[in-house]
Design goal:
The protein is an alpha/beta fold and 257 residues long. Helices cover 42% and strands 16% of the residues. It has 8 helices and 9 strands. The chain has helices at 17-28, 40-54, 68-76, 106-134, 155-174, 194-198, 203-209, 218-229, and strands at residues 8-12, 32-37, 58-62, 87-90, 138-142, 181-187, 239-242, 247-249, 252-253. The strands form 2 sheets. A 7-stranded parallel beta sheet has the order 3-2-1-4-5-6-7, sandwiched between helices. Strand 8 (247-249) and strand 9 form a beta hairpin. It is globular, with a radius of gyration of 17 Å. It binds 2-hydroxyethylsulfonic acid (8X3). 2-hydroxyethylsulfonic acid (8X3) binds next to loops.
Length: 257
């Protein structure tokens, strides 16, 4: 697939950040979009904005990807042609806290593993069989530089993103012999609500992460996804590892002070 006209693109974690930007980028490129997220009010608002800005058809589904039964029900009950998902963007994911791995609270441990790893498998399991039947589709997983490196305080989060990297590689093998494509887009520092979530609403701490440097924007990551999705059908981009110019490694960030 090298054009998105008449394509259906499904994005998880679509109410904000990279997910919302991806929804808008693919909508601008001619796709119809299914936006999924947990927070209904924010999701509805984001969907209205994306539809208003692009004129695309947008369908909204409230979904917690950690709930396997809900995932299966939501995808099985998509109306008509919306069921035929051409591009799945597995974006839902989060970091919680900066505790040492051994001291991660049970809530943070479950929150990260259930969303970043199990959620991705739940959603992919609901969508990929249809892609294989139609011999058409593209799964784009949001990885991270944290899938390549580990940094202090990121032990469990980095473990989940290493798992996403393994899932990305394994899923490509799972679909071997079909026309389905599998890509991971793995960014470093991106200024979204990521750090606000990690620090449980502590805005000052969150802002420090991006202070005096120029991080990636969610739109930069969405642009990379769109590029991968619009390559000729015989081309599979395995992974895009991307950072802003001010970042050279996990904790190597140039601050302009
Ligand atoms: C986001 C990258 O370095 O903030 O996945 O954990 S990092």
């Amino acid at each position: 697939m090298n054009t998105l006209n008449d394509s259906t693109v499904c994005v998880t974690g679509a109410s904000a950040g990279i997910g919302r930007a991806a929804a808008e980028a693919f909508a601008s490129a001619g796709a119809r979009i299914i936006m999924m997220a947990r927070r209904e009010d924010r999701l509805e608002r984001a969907a209205r904005d994306v539809a208003g800005a692009t004129g695309a058809d947008v369908l909204v589904r409230v979904l917690d990807v950690t709930d396997r039964d809900a995932v299966n029900t939501v995808f099985a009950s998509l109306p008509g042609a919306w069921k035929h998902i051409d591009v799945l963007i597995n974006n839902a994911g989060k970091a919680l806290g900066l505790a040492p791995g051994y001291a991660t609270t049970p809530e943070h441990l479950d929150g990260m593993l259930d969303t970043n790893v199990k959620g991705l498998v739940h959603v992919t399991g609901a969508v990929l069989p249809g892609m294989l039947e139609r011999n058409r589709g593209h799964v784009i997983n949001v990885g991270s530089t944290a899938g390549h490196w580990v940094y202090p305080g990121g032990t469990v989060y980095c473990a989940t993103k290493h798992a996403v990297r393994a899932l990305n590689e394994g899923l490509k093998m799972d679909v071997h012999g079909s026309a389905v494509r599998v890509t991971s887009v793995s960014p470093g520092l991106v200024e979204t609500e990521f750090s606000l979530v990690r620090f449980e609403g502590d805005r000052e701490k969150a802002e420090q992460v991006y202070a005096n440097m120029t991080p990636l924007r969610a739109e930069d990551v969405a642009d990379a996804m769109l590029w991968a999705a619009t390559r000729p059908p015989h081309v599979n981009i395995s992974e895009i590892l991307m950072m802003c110019v001010d970042q050279s490694h996990a904790t190597m960030v140039h601050r302009h002070v």
